[in-house]
Write a structure and sequence with these properties.
The chain is mainly β. 5% of the residues lie in helices and 42% in strands. The strands form six sheets. Strands 15, 16, 17, 19, 20 and 21 form a six-stranded antiparallel β-sheet that branches. Strand 6 (100-107) and strand 7 (110-117) form a beta hairpin. It is elongated and about 85 Å long.
């Protein structure tokens, strides 16, 4: 500290398991000189503390004693388990169907996300109030997963330091379940790529509707992306395919896309498939599935990994699950 205040940073360390700390030198290893100092302490779930300035003489070993941090009035934890509403099986976020659960705070009938988590292999999730700095209040859960409807829980109240187990959080599956995917493999210099997916009717009853494929094209320098529909013979005849399945029956939905060799370097091509139910399938989507993304680099198209492609697609289209609501 100087006559103008305490502004020069001279050290940082984490307290040990007993909460103790000791400063012997600055970040460059030089012994701390005599002078005036101040300590700032902080911890997740506690108010930060700043001591009054204190003087240290040459060779002096100063013990500041206990620095009492005041615990913030935060919730303890909110936990639960995401399950399939039909089968009761856990719904995980680390493999298909890639579930994500948000904890939303509700104030004056307006709810907004304060934390998010991917359920583990058992479908379990937990939100720690200290980690996310969540004060007491009224909350609800909102969940998403591929091939499942968006689910929202009833509102519930969590007090300071209270741990709440919400139990099972059911996600309702769409009647159409997507299966094996054939990705759109673009020939190196451009050309025809074919892609498809297996769709199964898990009921109840017969499923009648339509399926269509959408292509999102991201061209370098363009102010916005281009989106268009393709059919099983390409973009020249982009009519949707009819779907008519008995319960338990499956079909393969195939589409094709002709990508010109003249596409600009750095162009991204992403494709998805959507299925809708009669009547008016386009107004009654029963789920969509990301297929793949490719990028033109060095004159050739290269397919991105499933994870990279999915992340890129959501970033470029603004359809990440946190933005859907």
């Amino acid at each position: 500290c100087s006559a103008f205040g305490c502004f020069e940073f001279v050290g940082f360390q984490q307290a040990d398991f007993d909460g103790r700390f000791s400063f012997m030198s600055d970040p460059f290893g030089s012994v701390l000189s005599a002078g005036t100092y101040q300590v700032q302490a902080s911890a997740a779930g506690f108010e930060s503390l700043t001591t009054a300035p204190f003087d240290v003489s040459e060779g002096m070993a100063l013990d500041l004693g206990d620095l009492p941090l005041i615990r913030l009035q935060l919730i303890g934890t909110v936990s639960g388990r995401a399950i399939d509403a039909v089968t009761g099986d856990p719904v995980t976020g680390f493999m298909p169907p890639f579930a994500v659960v948000f904890l939303e705070r509700c104030d004056n009938h307006v709810c907004f996300a304060v934390a998010g988590a991917n359920p583990d292999l058992e479908g379990r999730f937990s939100f720690d109030g200290a980690v996310f700095s969540i004060p007491p209040g009224t909350f609800r859960l909102r969940g998403f997963a591929d091939d499942y409807r968006e689910s929202v829980s009833a509102e519930f109240v969590v007090g300071a330091f209270e741990n709440v187990d919400t139990g099972d959080f059911p996600l309702t599956p769409f009647p159409i379940q997507f299966g094996a995917v054939q990705e759109c493999q673009v020939p190196p210099g451009g050309g025809l790529c074919e892609f498809s997916i297996t769709a199964s009717n898990r009921g109840p009853g017969r499923y009648r509707g339509e399926a269509w494929a959408m292509v999102d094209l991201f061209t370098p320098g363009a102010s916005r992306n281009t989106r268009f529909q393709v059919g099983n013979v390409g973009a020249t005849n982009p009519m949707p395919q009819r779907v008519n399945l008995r319960q338990g029956e499956s079909t393969r939905l195939g589409f094709r896309l002709d990508i010109p060799a003249t596409a600009l370097e750095g162009t991204f091509v992403c494709v998805t498939i959507t299925v809708g139910r009669d009547p008016y399938p386009q107004f009654n989507s029963q789920g969509d599935r990301f297929i793949s993304c490719s990028v033109k680099q060095g004159g050739n198209f290269q397919a991105l990994s499933k994870k990279e492609g999915r992340q890129l697609y959501h970033e470029l289209t603004g359809t990440s699950r946190g933005k859907r609501h």
